[in-house]
Each structure stands twice: as C-alpha cells, then as structure tokens.
C-alpha cells in the first residue's frame, strides 16, 4: 500500500515548469536544406494544401502575394531557410522560392511536392 500512495503522490504533484518545458518539442523538424533537397529538384512543384500562402519573403511577416490551392503548380528555382512555421504537419524553416507572373514568391516546402 505504501508504494501505491507514493506513486499517487508523485503523479499528483505538479511538475516544475521551466522555459524549455513551456515550448513543446516539434514532432518533425527540418533544419537543413540537404534534408529535404528533393523539393524543387525538378524545377516544378505542386501544392498539397488548400489556401497555401505565397509571400514576398520566406517569413510569415512577408506580404501575402496570393494563395495557392491544392494541385496548383509553379516553377521553382531554389530552397531557402527562413522563418520557422508549422505547415502541413511539419515544423520547419525550409521554404521554396517559386517563380510566377515575372516575380518571385516564397512558400512552405512541407506543403509542396515535385512534379
């Protein structure tokens, strides 16, 4: 019985919180371009997401140029690191530079597939 009460007490006690514990670890993280270098490997990508934002910079603070729908295809010429975002179930700072209408835009690599 003593072991039971010790276990209940241990489980019921509040855990000490630290700054690191307050931020949950991502399930999937891509930090290095080489990890996901196949994105934009063909020079053309397609969106796997609905309302995928295409921004002026590879950061969520970049102005919104347009949004892509699932299946939309774009030419691309580079993968770049930018701001960290959770998109399409992946926490990453890898963005793809796409080319359209004679301008560049940036969107989340995790939400694109090569075509």
From TrEMBL:
Q: Does the keyword Signal apply?
A: yes
From the UniProt annotation, give the residues forming the signal peptide.
Answer: 1-19
Q: Which UniProt keywords apply?
A: Signal
Question: What is the protein named?
Answer: SH3 domain-containing protein
- Organism the protein comes from: Micromonospora rubida
């Amino acid at each position: 019985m003593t072991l039971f009460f010790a276990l209940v007490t241990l489980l019921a006690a509040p855990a000490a919180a630290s700054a690191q514990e307050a931020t949950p670890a991502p399930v999937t993280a891509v930090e290095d371009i080489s990890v996901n270098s196949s994105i934009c490997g063909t020079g053309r990508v397609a969106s796997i997401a609905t309302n995928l934002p295409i921004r002026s910079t590879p950061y969520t603070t970049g102005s919104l140029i347009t949004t892509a729908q699932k299946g939309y295809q774009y030419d691309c010429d580079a993968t770049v690191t930018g701001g960290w975002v959770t998109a399409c179930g992946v926490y990453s700072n890898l963005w793809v530079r796409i080319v359209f209408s004679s301008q560049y835009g940036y969107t989340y690599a995790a939400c694109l597939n090569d075509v």
